[in-house]
Amino acid sequence: MTKKPPALFEKFIYILIAVNVIAMILESHESVHLQYDVVFQIFETISIIIFSGEYLYRIYLGYKNKGLQGVSKYIFSTFGLIDLISILPFYLNRFISIDGRFLRILRLFRLTRIFKLGRESASLKLFVKALSAVRSELKFTLFLSVLMILFSASAIYYLEHDTQPEKFSSITESIWWATISLATVGYGDVYPITVGGKIFASIVSLIGIGIVAIPTGIISASFVEEILKMNRKQKD
Predict the structure, then answer these.
(1) Around Cβ 171, how many Cβ atoms within 10 Å?
(2) How many Cβ atoms from other residues are within 10 Å of residue 19's Cβ?
């Protein structure tokens, strides 16, 4: 029989995660941060101790269930990696000298704790299963997207560099324009002004709609297929 953490323990962890997310949001307000900085630090330390204990406890359960294979399965699982990432920045900050800007980025990983809420979610598990079923297709789509970004960045560089050398100074700088254009976002901070550049940008925008739609369609189809499979199993 596969052992799982007690239901009360799971509920406590879920509540702690929710409070952590609220604390992170409140801490972003300068006035609140200055007034309750010590409280936030104490709460973060206590939370890390609990989350670290939970991580070790789940490793122990994995070992009790299937030995080293169970430990490996948990550590390298999606939620095992989320559990590790959610506590790792705290220890990195304590034992390694880290640049302040990099530390602020690491703090964002605290938000991964919210994904732990979906550990027992059947819908999330179904979605992850659907993604796993179309890994090859998604990899090809990613490769196609990168190829199109590089091609678009190169083309717009040669079309616009002479007219706007400060905005399209290199192919590397042009990657930003190519990415937002293919993603059909278009912030408007960088845009072509030559006739050739405008025509090319129009074509890129139309192609971008298709590139965005391909992975969306693949994931949607796989998700529906997994739902149908699950429904057939329940009927059987």
Answers:
(1) 16
(2) 12
Q: What does the pLDDT look like over 42-93, one tens digit per residue?
A: 998 999 899 999 999 999 998 988 889 989 988 998 788 888 888 887 887 7
Helix, strand or coil, per DSSP, at residue 2: coil
What does the alpha-carbon distance between residue 192 and residue 159 come to, in Å, rounded to a whole number?
8
**In 112-218, beta strands by DSSP E:** none
d(CA 17, CA 69): 28
Per-residue pLDDT tens digits for 128-138: 788 888 888 88
- Map out the domains of the chain as residue ranges: 7-120, 135-235
pLDDT at 202: 92
Residue-wise pLDDT for 94-140, tens only, equals 777 655 455 555 556 666 666 666 666 677 778 878 888 888 888 89
Assigned CATH for 7-120? 1.20.120.350
> What kind of fold does domain 135-235 have according to CATH?
Helix Hairpins (1.10.287)
3-state secondary structure the chain: CCCCCCHHHHHHHHHHHHHHHHHHHHHCCHHHHHHHHHHHHHHHHHHHHHHHHHHHHHHHHHHHHHHHHHHHHHHCCHHHHHHHHHHHHHHHHHHCCCCHHHHHHHHHHHHHHHHHHHCCCHHHHHHHHHHHHCHHHHHHHHHHHHHHHHHHHHHHHHHHCCCCCCCCCCHHHHHHHHHHHHCCCCCCCCCCCCHHHHHHHHHHHHHHHHHHHHHHHHHHHHHHHHHHHHHHHHHC
